Amino acid sequence: MSYLxxxxxxxxxxxxxxxxxxxxxxxxxxxxLSGSQAILTDGVFSSLAVVIKLMMLGTSRLIAKETSxxxxxxxxxxxxxxxxxxxxxxxxxxxxxxxSGLQGLMNGGRETDFGLAAGFAVxxxxxxxxxxxxxxxxxxxxxxxxxxxxxxxxYVDMILAFGLLLSFAAAWAVEQTAWAxxxxxxxxxxxxxxxxHMIPPALRILRPSFGQxxxxxxxxxxxxxxxxMDESMKRxxxxxxxxxxxxxxxxxxxxxxxxxxxxxxxxTIAEFDEIRNAIDRAIGYPDHQKWLTINFTASRxxxxxxYLMDG
Length: 311
Hints:
Elements: H1 2-34, H2 37-65, H3 78-106, H4 114-142, H5 145-175, H6 186-197, H7 199-214, H8 219-236, E1 240-248, E2 251-259, H9 269-283, E3 290-297
Parallel strand pairs: 2-3
Antiparallel strand pairs: 1-2
Helix pairs in contact: 1-2, 1-4, 2-3, 2-5, 3-6, 3-7, 4-5, 5-6
């Protein structure tokens, strides 16, 4: 299952990088040809985004190796790092786009061939929408964190494309009226509006990746483990437990220390392993998205610090 997951994830990320490279090249060419700063900026953004997608692909391949001599706990921490880089990169593009829009307004607008620009916007909108919905559909069963955030970048491109298309159509219509001189301001205004629209998707990438980099415990995983262990305490008569959880991308790191009374009826290693298996099944999550460690001890010295006792 893990092999099939990684293979499918890498195929989607590779395809995404290839399509984005084509979109970026076409955007730069059409931006220069039409004189649209909005299209040129988006083309540059798409071309640079290929680097991020290749980083995602490289991260997926590293995670597939699971461990190495230098990274003995795996490469999962790479995933939030590359997603954080994507979020920072998106915010950088937002700043550049906003600055370009403001400069265009202050300089009296720009001349733009709206016919060429609108033609590219149609192509860009159809391609971005098609690939976005393709990724969303393919990731419904795969549930890859990398593919999910990659689809967010395609969602941004899809909205940008439709925004460009509608704005260029409106600007072309204005050119046919007495208000034609104002059409010069269409491109810089588009730049400002689109830059503002790109902020929320960037934050949706930055927030979870930053939290994972800091090692913050995911609430949903914590509550699920606590619920399972509370039930296990009653079923097996354990004295106490401490659970610690962390998440890198889609991989959950779960460690559970279980305290057993010294007078507790003795169990064989096989019986303890069966208890581990039962707890593992109750917690759920696919094996390739979980690193679970369950320890049994009769001494609190070997248990993790109980954060619930801090108050």
